[in-house]
Amino acid sequence: MSDREITQKPYLKLRADTQARDRSLREKVMSLEEAAALVSDGDHVAIGGCTMSRTPFAMIWALIRARKSGLHCSRSITSSEGELLFASGVSEHILTSWFSQGIVWGISRIMRAYTESKRARFEEWSHMAIGLRYRAGAMGVPFLPMRAMMGSDVAGQLDNIHEMECPFTGERVVLVPALNPDIALIHVQRCDAYGNAQIDGLEFMDIDIAMAANRVILTTERIVSNDQIRRAPDQTKIPFIAVDAVVEVPYGSAPHECYGVYEPFFDHMDWYAGRMKPEAEAGIAAYLEKYIYGPADWAEFLSLLGMADLLDASRRGRSIYND
Amino acid sequence: MTEPLDYTASELLAVMSGRILVDGQTAFAGVGIPLLAAVLAQRTHAAGLTILFEGGTLGPFVVAGELPPSTNEQRCTRRANMLLSITDVLLLLQRGYVDVGFMGGAQIDRHGNLNSSFIGDPADPAVRLPGTGGGNDIASLTQMIVAMKHERRRFVEKVDFVTSPGYLDGGASREESGLVAGGMYRVVTDLAVMGFDDETRRMKVLALHPGVTAQEVRDNTGFDIDIAAEPKFTEPPTGKELGILRHLDPDRLYTA
Hints:
Strand order of the largest sheet of chain B: 4-3-2-1-5-10-12-13-14-15
CATH topology of the domain at 45-137 and 180-224 and 237-321 in chain A: Glutaconate Coenzyme A-transferase
CATH topology of the largest domain in chain B: Glutaconate Coenzyme A-transferase
CATH class of the domain at 45-137 and 180-224 and 237-321 in chain A: Alpha Beta
Structural class of chain B: alpha/beta
Distance between the termini of chain A: 53 Å
Number of strands of chain A: 12
Helix content of chain A: 25-40%
Largest sheet of chain B: 10 strands, mixed
CATH superfamily of the largest domain in chain B: Glutaconate Coenzyme A-transferase
Number of domains of chain B: 2
Oligomer: heterodimer
Distance between the termini of chain B: 28 Å
CATH architecture of the domain at 45-137 and 180-224 and 237-321 in chain A: 3-Layer(aba) Sandwich
CATH superfamily of the domain at 45-137 and 180-224 and 237-321 in chain A: Glutaconate Coenzyme A-transferase
Strand content of chain A: 15-25%
Helix content of chain B: 10-25%
Order of helices and strands of chain A: HHHEHEHEHEHEHEEEEHEHEEHHHH
CATH architecture of the largest domain in chain B: 3-Layer(aba) Sandwich
Low-confidence stretches of chain A: none
Structural class of chain A: alpha/beta
Mean pLDDT of chain A: 96
Number of strands of chain B: 15
Order of helices and strands of chain B: HEHEEEHEEEEEHEEHEEEHEH
Radius of gyration of chain B: 18 Å
Low-confidence stretches of chain B: none
């Protein structure tokens, strides 16, 4: 399939798929394993959050454990979760604007190993282009115009981007096509059992992703009552009509951060980055065995991260609310 | 006479690039040296500098000792005026609210084009780099300051891949490509401060750092670079500037 076929849906198909979803106010709480079953091999999976923040890490962990394959992933910026998606064989194609664990840890050795050997593809778009692609998807329009990317080789090596003159002003603009993911994975601080989600702090591209996608899996730090949602409906950032699954997963972004709850597990991420240095592929294979396939459940994964690191990350995370 | 102060190349970069920022400006800052330099500017001559982070933060004040690992974590949001989506904060560039973009660079050429995507042939690269992030958007839509190490392998005649556009092939080629606003303003290195000729859009040295010779710049630049016969010199970093930097980054994450 071409990139165009993977990421763009014919408009009437998009509408029909949305019409076919049960959009009633119904409970949709399930386990990580049940939610993973909603993802089909070959799907375009949009990943919420950005870099090390509000990464739906537990859901990705569950997809890797379920041995998914051929997933086309997209994300604003891709960190260590992208390394695990490549190294596990779950995905050979990630559309993103930047791909490495984080600037302080240098260039990702796993991203390099997989892309340079052409075992996997890092499809690079500018950050704003990805944002406008999701937004076009959320708006139900086939493209949006923008004024960046022109003249660069980033645009030059993409085949599904188009320059034109504005029919009103004659100015040159570049058109970026809508992204309508098959499924979106989004981690939030809280939502109700129906999927009305509140997000604290930076929202990244998550609202556009949710509204653009054909299906949405929410993982949440905690499930609150629908009454609580209705007391402050202005705080609802993703509505229940767009959500297909709700999974309550405390520390569901660990070892990345969740705003106001925990910061990144820095000791673990330092150790992880160091583990990749001498021999990246052996390092990540061992990591997958021990941390992804090995644990009986998410709680056991968190136990492997360790109580000291978890408490430290929580202390730092909650400090955002200190004066 | 006071003894010259000791400082690292990264500290020199942060000081010299921070001095270029102007009080009252709105500046898009990348993480690392640009962030440090912007915060240093806030704490010296530009208390009214508004920082934007591409993660979606408008007008924060970063806490000393809690530097963020990217522009997308909660550490970026301290004392911010507003949080917005990534797409919406980047659209501020397109709408024209941003005075200056400020980032690091892996490779730059004589016309100020930046490469952060591929070393070698993009179809079969020697190194796949992390990519543009918001770099392309920022460089396309506002005046740019770039802070980077001055090395011959980084300062090349022509970049392997234009990730973030400078003046493309020079002259009016940037405007002709459709990029009607913005452009490279300054390149700050551990050796010198550079700008671009108004006509040819070629990089030229505006000032050397203390103790640096024109020959040293030429030796570390992979193309012919224009340097005045009697070049200007920057003022060395002050104890106050270095003290603030070390207070901000006590673990030397970005200034080692």
